[in-house]
Amino acid sequence: MKNIVILISGRGSNMEAMIAARDAGTLPVHIAAVISNRPDAKGLETAARAGITTHYVDHKAFPSREAFDGALAECIDGFAPDLVVLAGFMRILTEGFVRHYEGRLLNIHPSLLPSFPGLHTHQRALDEGVRIHGCTVHFVTPALDHGPVVIQAAVPVLDGDDEDALAARVLRQEHRIYPQAVRWFAEDRLSLVDGKVRLAAELRDDSVLIAPEVR
Ligand code: NHR
Ligand code: GAR
Predict the structure, then answer these.
(1) How many angstroms is it from 51 CA to the middle of ligand 2?
(2) Helices 121-128 and 163-186 meet at what angle, rounded to 10?
(3) 3: how many CB neighbours lie within 10 A of its CB?
(4) Which pLDDT score, from 0 to 100, does residue 201 have?
(5) Interval 26-37: pLDDT, tens
């Protein structure tokens, strides 16, 4: 079974979705550790309650991004992970860090990339007036939010949506597609080959998911 390390910064609901899938028997991985850059991340308590090893590497204690990333990588590599999963991890990672984990570093981003890379994606989608929004799981490359796409889910933007309503609709889809992507990796069906996603899974109808509430 593959070893994974999950990196968080806050609430950790994507991490919880993975723990739930593991417990349900649909995600065959060993969650070796959950690591946060914020000592007070809520998700650390949730992980500890689930019996998972937790650590934090406080980015504020380091003089540079390189120094922080070096300490973070040392902590991660102590668990010899096959895959590192960014789940609401809020620090931009240096090129050296990203290269060290090439092909074994996934992120979930709360927009339909390549639209809305960066932060505040839901408000920006509302401001642009798009009718379809969503989330993307991608392999992480040095260029922020521009790595090869593994799976996406789309949701409608509804009249009257505010940032919170839209974020909640997207988050429900994040909790479906992220465990799916990690499952593919765990089953050796997903890899990065020459900078492109290789997916040896049937692309079922629901590989691009539409929010059930509008079907
Ligand atoms: N690092 C690289 N090199 N490439 C990516 O694709 C990355 C990455 C690090 C994180 C997640 C990403 C997202 O899904 C991610 C992808 C943080 C920021 C950011 O601006 C932007 C995108 C993402 C994560 N962070 C601020 C910074 O100065 C701090 C913000 C804060 O602490 O609240 O690092 O959206
Ligand atoms: C999620 O919506 C995730 O896509 C997003 O933050 C939220 C974390 O929630 N990630 C980013 O914005 C990365 N910059 P969670 O902590 O409950 O999983």
Answers:
(1) 22
(2) 120
(3) 16
(4) 79
(5) 999 999 999 999
> Ligand 1 centre and the CA of 107: distance in Å?
10
pLDDT at 206: 52
CA distance 3 to 31: 6
Q: What is the pTM of this model?
A: 0.95
Q: Where are the domains of the chain?
A: 1-101, 108-173+184-215
Omega before 81 within 30 of 0, i.e. cis: no
Decide if pLDDT at 208 tops 80: no
Q: Which of 72, 145, 150, 170 to mutate to test the pocket of ligand 1 (most atoms within 8 A of CB)?
A: 145
Q: Which of 6, 37, 39, 36 is nearest to 21 (CA)?
A: 6
d(CA 166, CA 158): 8
- 1-101 has which fold? Rossmann fold (3.40.50)
* Domain 108-173+184-215 part of CATH 3.30.2270.10: no
**Predicted confidence (pLDDT) per residue in 46-103, tens digit:** 999 999 999 999 999 999 999 999 999 999 999 999 999 999 999 999 999 999 999 9
160 CA from centroid of ligand 2 (Å): 23
**Residues noted as catalytic:** 109
Task: Decide whether any atom of ligand 2 lies within 6 Å of the 144 Cβ.
Answer: no
